[in-house]
Design brief:
Number of domains: 1
Number of helices: 6
Structural class: mainly alpha
CATH topology: Four Helix Bundle (Hemerythrin (Met), subunit A)
Number of strands: 0
Radius of gyration: 15 Å
Order of helices and strands: HHHHHH
CATH architecture: Up-down Bundle
CATH class: Mainly Alpha
Oligomer: single chain
Distance between the termini: 27 Å
Strand content: under 5%
Shape: elongated
Length: 123
């Protein structure tokens, strides 16, 4: 994810339409990549893929000890933000986008570390 958003102050980010649109799109793609990776792992392991919601993939990874349960809940929360972006349930609050840029990027990086560890064990 682009580091150009991180150093911005809330007062710079919130009113800027271009920055908001760009940040939303980057977050959407990054979160969707995590969901897609989870789905690929679940499929490759032959696990249940009959989920009611897209975020349940993270619970399945936790059941398989690929990620821990608390972290699954974090990813479920992040997926909720992605759902708002994708489905337009609500107007996206710029404050939430800013908070996600400032606070959730390490969670996405942590997901990558969990997956890397899983893949190393499988190799």
């Amino acid at each position: 994810m682009n580091d150009k958003f991180k150093p911005l102050e809330r007062s710079e980010f919130i009113p800027d339409d271009s920055l908001n649109a760009e940040a939303e799109r980057h977050l959407q793609i990054a979160i969707q990549a995590c969901i897609d990776i989870a789905n690929h792992i679940i499929a490759s392991l032959g696990l249940n893929r009959n989920f009611e919601t897209v975020s349940e993939v993270f619970n399945e990874l936790a059941k398989e000890h690929i990620i821990d349960g608390d972290f699954a809940n974090i990813m479920i929360s992040i997926t909720g933000y992605r759902n708002v972006l994708v489905h337009g349930y609500l107007d996206v609050q710029r404050e939430i986008t800013y908070d996600n840029i400032q606070n959730r990027l390490p969670d996405l990086a942590q997901f990558a570390k969990y997956i890397e560890k899983f893949l190393e064990k499988k190799a």
